[in-house]
Structures are given as C-alpha cells and as structure tokens.
C-alpha cells in the first residue's frame, strides 16, 4: 500500500474513533508554531503556542469540539415494534423418524473392481 493511502486510512480511522478534536488540536499547534516562528525565534514561538494566552481560531474550534463530545447526548426512548403474523396452517409433528431409517434409504454405490488403464505416475 502506498504512503498516501496509509495516511488517508490513518486519518479516516482517527476520525471514525472520535479523535477529531485531538486531530484538530494537533493541526492547530503545528500551524501556530509555523506562524509564530515567522515573527519570533523558534523557542518563543513554541512558548506562545503552548502558553494558552495566544489561542487561534482552530484551537477554539478544537476545544469546542472536545466539550461537545464530553456532553451526554439526549437519547430518545427506544420504540419496540412487535409484529404478530397469524398462521393459516397448523403444523403437527406426530413422530420423528430415527436416523437409521433415513440412512438406510440411501443407496451405497458398488465398489469398483476395474484397475486404471495407466499406472499412477511415480515420484522421483
């Protein structure tokens, strides 16, 4: 499998498992380090990224998504549908035949006494 397919599969699996807020937060941190790194040295850019005072819109969106995932969802009461199908025929089983009676009716083919025309191949 090529590299692009593996990355796409990994991202799809992460989103399916509910890691979308963590994914968003990681993307936000990377973009913040890059954008702050253009204005200040790398050490300062990393400090600004993780201090919590310089939050970007993507960080706010990731925080809101994480809060929404933690909230319990209002569940609707499940409705149980039961269907009754009236039967027009009544089936009564009087007796059950034994297995020996069933297998006795199966015909066993006679054994074959003819030899093959050609001998089987030899190994080696």
* Number of discrete helical segments: 5
* Average pLDDT figure: 75
Structural class: mainly alpha
Q: What overall geometry do the principal axes of the alpha carbons give? A: elongated
Give the helix level as a range of percent: 40-55%
Radius of gyration based on Cα positions: 36 Å
Write down how many β-strands occur, each being a DSSP E stretch of 2 or more residues.
0
Reported for the largest beta sheet, the result is:
none
Strand content: under 5%
Written as H for each helix and E for each strand, in order along the chain, the element string is HHHHH
- Oligomeric state, counting identical vs distinct chains: single chain
Beginning-to-end CA distance, first to last residue: 42 Å
Low-confidence spans: pLDDT under 50, at least 5 residues?
none
């Amino acid at each position: 499998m090529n590299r692009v397919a593996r990355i796409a599969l990994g991202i799809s699996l992460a989103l399916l498992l509910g890691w979308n807020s963590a994914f968003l937060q990681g993307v936000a941190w990377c973009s913040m380090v890059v954008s702050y790194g253009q204005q200040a040295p790398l050490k300062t850019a990393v400090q600004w990224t993780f201090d919590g005072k310089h939050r970007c819109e993507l960080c706010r969106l990731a925080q809101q998504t994480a809060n929404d995932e933690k909230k319990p969802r209002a569940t609707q009461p499940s409705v149980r549908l039961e269907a009754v199908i009236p039967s027009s025929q009544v089936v009564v089983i009087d007796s059950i035949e034994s297995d020996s009676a069933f297998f006795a009716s199966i015909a066993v083919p006679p054994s074959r006494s003819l030899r093959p025309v050609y001998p089987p191949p030899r190994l080696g």
